[in-house]
Amino acid sequence: MLRVLLAFLLFLTIPPLAISQDATSSSPEEEVGRVQQQLAVFEAEGPADSVVCYYDKQADLYCQMDRLDDWLYSYWDLQAYFYENPERALPVLERALREKWREPASPSEWEALLWVYTNQGYQAFQLGKVLASARAYERAAAIYEKQKIPDFDIVGYVFLPLGAHYTRLGDNERARAVYRRALGQPGLAAEELGGLYNNLGLSYWDEGEYEKAEVQFSAGLAVPGLPPVKKALLLINKGRNDLEQEKPKEAEVSARKALHILSALPEEETVTDYRSGAQALLGMLFAGEDPEQSERWFALALENGKAAYGTLQHRTIGKIFVNLGQMRLQNRDGRGALLAANRALQSVLPSFLPKVPEALPPDSLFYEENTIIEALELKADALQQLAVEEDSLLLLNRALEAYELAAAAGEMLSSTFRYESARLVLQAKGRARTEKALSLAYRLRSEPGVVRRAFVLVEQSKARVLLDAIRDNLGRREIEQGDTLLFRERELRRLQAYYRKELALQREESRRLALEQHLAETADMLAEVDKALRRKYPRLAELNSMPAFTATEAAKQLLPSGDAVLLEYFTGQHQLFAFHLRNSGAVSLFRVGSTPQLQEPLTEFLELLRSRSALQAGRATYAAKAFQLYQKLLHPLLETGDSFPKEVILIPDGQLGYLPFEALLTEKAESSGWAAMPFVLKKILLRYGYSAATLWQQSQLKAAPEGNLLEVAPVFASGERGLAPLLGPGLEAGQLGISRTEVLRGKSATVANLEALAGKFRVLHFSTHARVDSSHAPPRIELTDGPLYLPQLYALGLNAGLVTLSACEAGLGNLAEGEGVMSLARGFAYAGSASLVSSLWAVNEQSTATLFNCFYTHIAAGMPKGNALQRAKLDYLESEAAGFRKSPYYWAGLVFVGDNTPVTFRPAGWPAQVVLGALLILGAAAWFWRRGK
Predict the structure, then answer these.
(1) Whole-model pTM?
(2) Would you state the pLDDT for residue 919?
(3) 672 and which of 229, 676, 751, 916 could share a cystine (Cβ 3.0–4.6 Å)?
(4) How far apart are CA 489 and CA 555, in angstroms?
């Protein structure tokens, strides 16, 4: 029996062996022809597995012949066979990219690879993989730009979808750069022009720039010969923009016009998709006044969306469910909103199958997609609404967990952005969510661990762009400084800073287009160098992926003394919250008060502080307001126990970033002279931080450059550029006992000299003008040959333990929600300074010089930096020389931010030491000689 079975198996092997021997007898070229004949049959009749088998055979033959272009087209044709089934088409393209045995060597091979990447982008998006799709289109664009492939519709196939993906992800500045490049292409069709204007409008709409969005949508609608389907799309998005501007009638007109246009067009995927968008817009329009009609419109939108995509598992469907849930929330239908939130999550996380409605997805399922963030926030809102209705502690805790997961998804998305502006916008969008989470945490503050979790949420919402920059600086100080990759990165950062500065100043449109393109190209090159650095130095990636800073870590790292506390504020749209942290690790959460009610007294106080004459004339008014703000902002947080802290680390937020807290009064003082007033300055050492995490990372920025102090002092003796002369004597570092100093004074205080020397000194001191104005120009420091703008500061590459800015308004700038004041001081922190002293308003040259000389005297004596500034201010208040200049206008504007360790100065070099030693010996000898006489 065994013999018979073996004979049968041998018989089965004979035909394949014969076929194989026959195949080897013919050339690969001849075999390709036979394979293609079989392919034609199977493609027409099936089955699909045979089609796959023969495309694989064809590809193997092309590989034997080293014909990379035909090999790539084999897989491109196979994905085209599965074109309507992206779950099968996408892996085919990914396999081709993974298994290609070499890089292209001819134009035809590059073109084949371009088509593979283009279709990879298309198929990835059909599965809702926006980031993967964008990466594929980026590679396609890079090939096109480098190889100059002729007769390829780069706008329609690559630029339009790529820019749309950036907008979907929230990277709007980058999206606009792509669209500007596309608009510069010759021979654009009306459909492409309309699409570009539409997408440009969406990039502004997403940032809340509704007037700019309106301009782009109107320009698109005015394109001659615009196809009806594109006109419908522009009308839908114009309607959304009108809705955001509270113009519901105009929005409804646009939506209905779009539906009318689409009703006359043949049924196909794009028409059905746009119809769904118009119906969703109408659902939003009727959300408040007619919930039943709103539900009907959303149901139609979902029906058409499913028809367009062939599935409910798509991000666009998820967006519709989010809008539906928001409508239900608005109408107090918490259960319905919860259901919509779950459907939205399942649209983008297909494996999330909740057993109970309140279940939450694990963060291991997350990827870079803002629909996940929106759906989680909707779910948190719905859970919180239900918890109140049902008096459920469990649902309240679940709501807080959902807010935390939304924050985690936001962190993941933010890590993909190459433009700082995109990260700032995403951070600002998360502020309302954080405020809701804090309100919830305050209600649950007696629950174990809730306040600590809330502290982490607030830390995640603050100064994230700056924190990453500081961590990058920290990591790069550990890299071998001769590394060519590091040198290349620094050069690209300088180039990026130049383009950003020029773009901020340039108003002429054609020049702006060129600058935006250069900036985008530089950002792409910088991203590639950054990837290479992270592969070579894993420590860089490790630093950027550090977990959020916890209250326990903050207490351990920032509060070594029991006499110190940390106060961290969060300024929401409705409520002001604050955390009180002790070195024991104990943390408390306070609801300080109503933000709108605090806004008026705070604004009035700041206006008073910045006016020398108003302060002199209104001392009693000042005293009343300073005590009032102390009672609101500090008293509830500090006077809670038996002992008053000697040191407070203060993390302000929002408008509080403009307030010098040391100028507040701890007691009523209606008739006191300035020197006798009970300023907070006299009772507490105050120092500031952008966040607890940035403060800790700044304290780790240890560097020991050769130079001790660089003083930068343009004089403007002739009033250059209309600037007032600065004729003070300077720091006189020699008299302060500081060696290894260099002074850039007068004509030598140039931008080039500063850029060359900035990284070589431990302390940088600027005695100059600074400007913050309401025009388009960013904050700037004035040097002899021109201004140094904020974007340029980012690229300085500092190793300084301290930067002092004896310059007007160096601590002022535009307020970026969550990130803080975008000031010159922040720019120096971004560039790598461990600590800063800067001014919050226009300073008096004479009083500031007195203060700084006193400050540096204490610094040279080894006093910690923050303590040295406090002591200098107290000395100033106590001195007779200050005379009538003792109001807070003269001293309170100088604030200390950052690490508070002493500055360690490098001793004088050996020649100076030898000279000093010889002088000491000669002096001693002379003393003994005189004594002997």
Answers:
(1) 0.85
(2) 46
(3) 676
(4) 35
